[in-house]
Amino acid sequence: MKRRDALKNSAAVLGMLLAAGLLPQAAYAGYNKAAFDAKTVAEVLKALGAAAPAESKEVTLTAPDIAENGAVVPLGAATSLPNVKQVLVLVEKNPNTLVASFAVSDAVEANFLTRAKLGQSSDVYAVAITGDGKAFYAKKEVKVTLGGCGG
């Protein structure tokens, strides 16, 4: 059996187990459909039960000034705030604003890297949500060039 065939078969089996309810809810309990379906930053934070965000120097966002290929834009979010429970990466002008959500505990350093697709130039946010529901953010505009011609 080829590796590709094995992966296809295991994905199909996993899907059937999920559909049949034979996997525990914990396998996908961290997924918040309302947050990922939200269209604005405010809607995402509301779906996650967070307060209105405040800008903070203790939250950092790593993103390029110009992304030549909007299909794979490297983004990083980190914070040194205490009692952080969740770190988010948000892209304001994407069809779905919430790009990534990372759960944080005492055993996890709140420093994450990911790649995202940006359909157009947009403000990108790194948001840290604390255990008491307060939200803090850092923001940066990322310009997406189309075919290297500017955008």
Automatic annotation (TrEMBL):
Which Pfam families is this protein grouped with? SoxY
InterPro entries xref list: SoxY, SoxY_sf, Sulphur_oxidation_SoxY, TAT_signal
Give a yes or no for keyword Signal in this entry. yes
Alphabetical keyword list: Signal
Q: Report the superkingdom from the record.
A: Bacteria
Which residue intervals define the domain Ig-like SoxY in the entry?
47-149
Locate the coiled-coil region(s) and give their ranges: none
Where is the signal peptide, in residue numbers? Answer: 1-29
Is the Secreted keyword given for this protein? no
**What is this protein's name?**
Thiosulfate oxidation carrier protein SoxY
Species assigned in the record: Comamonas guangdongensis
Question: Which taxonomic lineage is given here?
Answer: Bacteria, Pseudomonadati, Pseudomonadota, Betaproteobacteria, Burkholderiales
